Every structure is written in structure tokens, then in C-alpha cells.
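Consortium newsletter contribution from the modelling node. Members have asked for a concrete example of what our holo predictions look like. Here is one, prepared for the adenosine-5'-diphosphate complex that several groups have been discussing at recent meetings.
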Amino acid sequence: RLMVELRSTAKTYLNGHNALLDVNLAVKQGEFLFITGPSGSGKSTLLKLLYGEELPTQGEVIVDGCDVACLRGDRLSLFRRRIGIVFQDYKLIPQRTVAENVTVVLQAQGYTRKEIQRRLEPTLKLVGLLNKADCFPEKLSGGEQQRVSIARAIIATPPLLLADEPTGNLDPDNSWQIMQIFQKLNSFGATVIVTTHDEQLVRRCGHRVVQVHNGRLHQITE
Ligand code: ADP
Ligand code: ADP
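And here is the predicted structure:
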């Protein structure tokens, strides 16, 4: 079963820029995929197509059986709940504690307090932040802040996890820690797609790699 399928997909932005050209990609359920390529090559655009932040100008984007381009409004919101997303810059709320940052989305989605409590501890434990639950983001290192954002992305156990340059602001040790968390989630069954230009990290992990170059996708390994 495929989790992600792009068929002859292209994205031209409104200013005429061709960010992606004739991209074909299939990612199986349970796979771990790296997307590499230089800055500006189209990696973020590819991920944005997967979570419906941008629409393709040609071709199809099928995620978890849904044609993403056909989703609007409530159906798009429900679809996005099945995707965890991690960004380079963490996007934490400064005035909220770690626990609040991780659970704010569940609250908005109407999970009960009991269910939120049930999920919080194992999630913080998985990212190694159980002892930081009541801290505010500014007191944390970059690596810890990124682990908070991962906890937020996975607390609802989405089957697909997307990460856009998640280690772009981190040193090699912290980057490796982050990758180990992604690998653990993958071993629990999540499909994981990570963009990065850190070739060394990619080699060290040994998963399938595709490269985007000038908007075109090249298969590097199977
Ligand atoms: P990467 O993630 O590999 O750095 P992006 O997908 O962010 O690449 O960008 C690919 C290209 O598309 C870049 O040239 C970028 O400037 C351009 N681009 C990205 N977003 C937009 C947008 N909203 N409008 C116009 N051009 C964009
Ligand atoms: P990223 O590196 O994560 O793609 P960027 O800093 O490139 O982020 O882009 C930040 C925002 O600006 C995104 O929403 C992107 O779509 C938009 N953007 C990027 N490049 C351009 C561009 N050339 N023209 C218009 N918008 C752009």
C-alpha cells in the first residue's frame, strides 16, 4: 500500500516560477525517505503539496488514499490531522510551557482532558523531555525545542510524519538525536519523509534517498 504518490506533478508559483517539474514519486506505508537537494531546489514545495499547503498546477498528489487537490475546508482540516509536521524553526508558542505547546492542538480538536493526559507522558518520554514539561521554550536548547515540536507533531499518532529541514539549525549531535527519534517512530510504523541538505546525516541513517535539483526529482537509492 502506498502512503504517498505523485504522478507527473508540477508546481508553478503565481509569479511564474517553476518550483517542481514532472515529479513522480511513490512512498510505501512504513517507509523512511530522505529528500535532499540544494536550497531553492523545491524540497519545501514538495512537502507543501503533500499536506495541502500548496496545490499542484499539473498532475496528482495522492496521500493516504486522498487526492489532496480535491480537499477543501473541513475535509482538508481532517486530512491534515493524519499528518504530523516538523519545521526547521520549531514554531513553538513562547508564552506556553512545553506540555501546553504539545497539547494545544489536541485541545483545539476536542480531545478530552483524560485522553490528553494519557498521551502526554509517553510522548514526552519518547522525545526525552519528561522533566521539561513545565519549562518555557526560551529556557530550552535548540535541540530540545525541536524535540518539543516533534512531540507536538506525533501526540495524535499520525500515520505520516513530514519534516522540513528539521536539523537545519542544529549541531551534529542534536541532529543525530532528532534522526534517532524519527527512526524510532518509523520502527513503530509511521511513514517518515525528511528533507535535508545534510548529506552526512543521510548516509549515516541508510534509508532511501531522492534528490531534488532545479525542480526535478532524481532517485538516488531504492
Ligand atoms: P527548498 O525547500 O529546496 O529550499 P522551495 O521549495 O522552498 O525550495 O523553493 C523552490 C523554489 O520556489 C525557490 O526558487 C523559491 O524561491 C520558489 N518559491 C517557493 N515558494 C514560493 C512562492 N510562494 N512563490 C513564488 N516562488 C516560490
Ligand atoms: P523554506 O526554506 O522553508 O521553503 P522560505 O523561507 O523559502 O521557507 O519561504 C518562506 C515562505 O515564503 C514560504 O511560505 C514560501 O512559500 C514563501 N516564498 C519562498 N520563496 C518565495 C518567493 N520567491 N516568492 C514568494 N514567496 C516565496
